[in-house]
Predict the structure.
Amino acid sequence: MDVRRTVGRNLRWCREAAGLSQGQLAKLLAAKKLGVTQSYISELEHGRRNPTIVTLSYIARALKVSVAKLVEDRPEHGR
């Protein structure tokens, strides 16, 4: 299991379920002074970045999900 890919897949699924674009999510996080860009969100979703737990926590809050939902291996998300 590649945790970065799992987080990326879950992040994309949760972001899309929330009806947000990558840019919109980045703006929500920038409002929290995280300095997250749309390209960073894209790199996370593609499993190319390794976010800190603090970043995951802010992302989860912005998406109104738990951090666990972002990190759990869930095959129903279209592997």
User: Anything to note?
Assistant: DSSP finds five helices and no strands in the chain. The mean pLDDT is 90.
